[in-house]
Structure formats: structure tokens, C-alpha cells
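Q: How do we represent a protein-ligand complex in a form that can be generated cell by cell?
A: Start from the inputs.
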Amino acid sequence: MKKEKIVIRGRKELHGKVKVSGSKNAALPIIFASILSGDLELHNVPELLDIETASKLLEYMGFYVERGDGILKVQELSVKTETPYELVNRMRASILVLGPLLARYGKAKVSMPGGCAIGTRPVDLHLKALSKLGADLRVDHGFIVGEAKGGLRGAEITFDFPTVGGTENAVMAAVLAKGKTVIRNAAKEPEIVDLIKALKLAGAEIEGEGTDTIEIRGVEGLSPILYRVMPDRIEAGTFLSAVAVAGGEIVVEDFPYETLEIVIDKFREAGLKVEQISERKVLVKKVDRLKATNVVTQPYPGFPTDMQAQFMAAMCFAEGTSVIEETIFENRMMHALELKRLGAKIHVNGTTAVVEGVEKLIGAKVNATDLRASASLVIAGLGAENTTEVYKVFHLDRGYEKLDKKLSNLGADIERVEIYEEEREEV
Ligand code: EPZ
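Then emit the C-alpha cells for the protein with EPZ bound:
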């Protein structure tokens, strides 16, 4: 993969309109649900590295995968129920094949996901839930080896924490289990609701999606999944941050307004104008310098952890001091260290950041450390003086479809530049 950096010459206002792409975090579980049905056609699929990884994983397991023009098709051929380390290591969401494999084939060998930049990311809650459904699971040389002789059986599951992935794995496993499953303290994220809508259209019997109690009645099998993925609410929220920092006025289309209430409230509280002009169209306008605003990340419907870094970038320029608390991941403040290289005044204490807003930031070379951190650095660059160069942009391409192009079309002076050997990335 060629090495690139993103170069931004800041202080250009944004104007025009932009369309939000399909949701990465809804598309990924639905793509893996093709293991349950053996047949899937998914629309509005974003072109992302993570979608490519998910496709490669299914191909490795023996599925036929076709992708193009936002449509992804999966057909079951002869399936091997195991996954390789290198693909799981590249994308943690690969753990979402575990539930479907156990439900459909009664066995699975999935590489244990490692930690990642934002935390240890254990999967203990996934394993506990699948064991409750009758799977016999053990970890062997870095692989999770699972068996469900005679298939899975419905069970009562209560999560210690409303885990998004854990809920998705448990729901997909329960769809083909014998009998009824009740999941309590389930996660309520809109992406889970999207997954469940897709499963129900294919014949799954599920109730309670979007609440903390989900009931599933196992069925013999699913018909082909045909679905259109919801818009990406985190990409939509990222555009609110971009206008908050760069200024200007834009219209965002395919904006999933009903899934971003608290994020919209927080940006309005800070003084950004956010106006719904139709069901899925929003006008965003910066009328004045933003005011410092505090956030605490929480499971849905609280302020999403995936918007924390982008909100912090906006608060770096705000008037006053903001307190930003991260309660979901134990190490999701690394963007703060890079923002400080641009002159941001941030004091990080554990998982809390105190951000003292400044009038301006000065462009510099910065390193992206994880997906949302890279978005936060690009946003900060939009408002910084001079030139900001963001390295390790592969992080950005995991979760944003052509973000630099979309910002450039809105008037930002931003371009992607190939890095050659002699121009080493900052260590
Ligand atoms: C999903 O990750 C998203 N990824 C993440 O988005 C998002 O940040 C996260 O949910 C929270 O909203 C996808 O949907 C592909 P969790 P997931 O299980 O499922 C702990 C992005 O930027 N935990 O709700 O891994 C865990 O360590 C990504 O698009 C356990 O302890 O999130 C974390 O602290 C980043 N044991 C917390 O729960 C478990 O078995 C939340 O994790 C599972 C989770």
C-alpha cells in the first residue's frame, strides 16, 4: 500500500453541500450476517479499508464477494470456518464472524483480536454470551476455537456492560439457535438497530432492538439478506466539527438526524447553527467563535466515544475551558498529544482532558494514531495557520470515504500527497 500524507493549508471557510456515506459500523456486522444467510446484497456500502478487509475475510473463508458502486454481494460457496491472524489483526470487528459461524456451522476458529491503539479491547463479554448459548469455547495458540455440537440453544444473557460488538455477536448467534434468547443490558446503538432490521427482513424473529432488552426466537434458516445501510452518523458528526473549526455554511445530505441528538445539542450549546431543513438534510453554519462546552462519552444515546476526538478539535479553538471525559475506552486521548503539537492547550489526566481554547493553532507535522484521531487532526488543520501535514492516513481511510476529497469540494485547501522513501514520516 503506498504511503501518503494529507497536507492542509488552513483558514479556508467551507461552503456548498456534501453527502454522508453509508455507515461503516452498520455495514460490517450486516456483511458478516451473510454467514447466517449464505446470500447477501447490501447497498450504500462505503468504500473503506475496513470493508475491503471484511470482504477479504469472507473470501478467505470460501465466500464469493463482489463489490462495486456501493453495492456488495456475498454468495456462499464451500465455507471454511476459520480466519487468519493477519486479517483479524487488521480489523477487530472480524470477531463478529464468531457468532454467525457457531450458529450456522456449529464450529469456528477465529484468531483472538489483539489490543489496539485505543485500548486492550477484550472480547470476554462476547465469549461469555456465546458460551451461554451453548458454545464450547477455548483459546488455543492465539485462536478462539469454538464448537456447538447439536447447534446453539436459546438462553438468558445479561451483559456486564452494553458492548456493541458483544450485542451484535450474541444477536447473530441467537437468530439460528433453538428456542428463545433474551439479551439484557444490550447496547442500543443505531448500527445494531440497522443490523437487526436487515436480519428481520431475511426472516429472523427479533424484538426490542434499540432498547436494553432484545428478544430473539431462533428460526431454521434465513432467506437472502437484501438491505440498504444507514448513513454514517459519525461521519455526519465529523462535518459538524469541520464547520465549527473552519467556519462557513454547508448543507449535509443523508444526515441521520435522529441518531445524533446529543451531538447536535452539544454543538448548538457551543454556538454552532445546526438546522434540519428536511428529514435527512441539515444546514450547518458557524456564526461566531464557539464557546467552551463539556462532554462525557457514554453508550448510546449518550455522547458517542467515536465523536470525542472530533469534538476536542473544535474545543481547541473555543472561547473558555472545556472538560472532555472519555468513559468507554481507557486510552482514547492520543489525539490530544498531537493537537498540542499544533499549539492546543490541553491537559490530559487519565481519561479526562481539560481543553483551554486558544485563538489560533499553528500548522505542523502530526501523526494519526487511530481512526477518529486522524479525523480530529484533519479538522484541526482546517483551522490552523499555515500548513498541517497529517501522517499515517491509512487510519483515516479505514473509516472515512474520501474525507479529504469531500472537504476539498467544500472549499478546504487539502490534498493527499504520496510520501517517498527519503521523506520519512515523523517517528
Ligand atoms: C464498536 O466497537 C465500534 N466498532 C467502535 O467504533 C465504537 O467506538 C464502540 O463500538 C463503542 O461505541 C464497530 O462497530 C466496528 P464495545 P466495540 O464492545 O464493539 C469493553 C470506530 O471508530 N469491552 O461497545 O469493540 C471495551 O474494551 C470504532 O469506528 C470489554 O471489556 O465496542 C471498551 O472499553 C472504534 N469486553 C467498551 O467495552 C468485551 O467483551 C466498549 O466496547 C467487549 C467490550
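The longest strand covers residues 272-278. Residues 233-246 form the longest helix (14 residues).
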